UniProtKB/TrEMBL annotation:
Keyword annotations: 2Fe-2S, Iron, Iron-sulfur, Metal-binding, Oxidoreductase
2Fe-2S ferredoxin-type domain sequence ranges: 2-78
Superkingdom to which the source organism belongs: Bacteria
One Pfam family of this chain: Fer2_2
Annotated protein name in UniProt: Aerobic-type carbon monoxide dehydrogenase, small subunit, CoxS/CutS family
Single GO molecular function: oxidoreductase activity
Length: 163
């Protein structure tokens, strides 16, 4: 066992786990943040997607020892203009993008990363960006419409400087 100091959703956490423990297990088992889901355990579905700094990461593949001082954000993190989870979640509701809902937290985190890197994405950029995440229920077209809807709403919001 090793002690790790993590910054998750803006809060410090100290945990004692084996260095090769996947970040997903730490989030779910130790920190009780259950938004990210275990889907395949192989980095092939994206249900476990979280953000590490500004990058979407499949947390089932990332050992906690590789996180270091980087900021981890999960779907449980609060929304803002720069982390637009509230807008995204409403868009997913409006488009009825969730059937079983298992993949949705990972989809929202991947879309959040998209908006942070490309604030006004094209439809092709949205498709390319969302491609690594799978929806086994087959609501991909609704998910893409939800991300497009959120992008359109966010484009209308005034941009404020970060404090």
């Amino acid at each position: 066992m090793t002690t790790f100091h993590l910054q998750v959703n803006g809060k410090p956490h100290t945990i004692d786990v084996d260095a090769d423990t996947p970040l997903l297990y730490v989030l779910r088992n130790d920190l009780k943040l259950n938004g990210a889901k275990f889907g395949c355990g192989l980095g092939q579905c994206g249900s476990c997607t979280v953000m590490v700094d500004k990058a979407p990461v499949m947390s089932c593949l990332l050992p906690v020892s590789m996180v270091g001082a980087r900021a981890v954000r999960t779907v449980e993190s609060p929304g803002s203009r720069w982390v637009p989870s509230v807008v995204l979640q409403q868009a997913f509701i409006d488009e009825q993008a969730a059937q079983c809902g298992y993949c949705i937290a990972g989809m929202i985190m991947r879309a959040t990363a998209l908006f942070e890197q490309l604030p006004s994405p094209t439809d092709a950029q949205i498709r390319d960006w969302m491609q690594p995440n799978l929806c086994r229920c087959g609501t991909h077209l609704r998910i893409l419409r939800a991300v497009r809807r959120a992008a359109d709403v966010l484009a209308l919001q005034p941009v404020r400087k970060k404090r």
